[in-house]
Amino acid sequence: MTNHVERFHAALTVLAGHGHIKQRLIKAYEDNLVAVNEDELPIALKESFSDLDRQMHGVTPLNGEGPICASVRKMSFQEASRCAASVVTLFGEISRMQDDTQVRLPLVEVDESRVPPFLVKSV
Q: Which of 53, 64, 71, 86 is deepest in the core (most CB within 10 A)?
């Protein structure tokens, strides 16, 4: 899942950059999310990602442009903004899931049953 977290984070970085929302959305999706296999995502995210993917491939391309470019070109500003918001939401959910599954180890292992030598009284 770490690879997916990194891909969504990279997409967010592009979305937060400069330029028109449609151009940022195309770049974010083509460069980072097009290779995400929805079957490798957690079950809770599959439907949301599938919806986003469908929107990003919804228009048949013309004259050599790709399906993502064609789909985003046909989107309104509001539709493109909603797609970008979906990427943000998916990143939040996938990173939260990763945090929940990581094993948290203590910084220092403490054996409470052992008494330090300097505290042991000699007889």
A: 71
Between the CA of residue 84 and those of 79, 92, 112, what are the distances in Å? 9, 13, 50
Q: Within 13 Å of residue 55, how many CA atoms lie on the same side as its CB?
A: 20
Q: Where are the domains of the chain?
A: 2-102
Tokens of 99: 């945090």
State the Cα–Cα distance between residues 2 and 91, nearest whole angstrom: 11
Question: How many helices (DSSP H) and strands (DSSP E) are in the chain?
Answer: 5, 0
Structural contact between residues 62 and 20, judged by C-beta atoms closer than 8 angstroms: no
Of 107, 20, 120, 50, whose CA–CA distance to 58 is shortest?
50
Work out the number of other CB atoms within 10 angstroms of the CB of residue 82.
Answer: 13
Per-residue pLDDT 10s for the chain (123 aa) are: 558 899 999 999 999 999 999 999 999 999 999 999 988 898 999 999 999 999 999 999 988 899 999 999 999 999 999 999 999 999 999 988 876 665 454 555 555 666 666 666 665
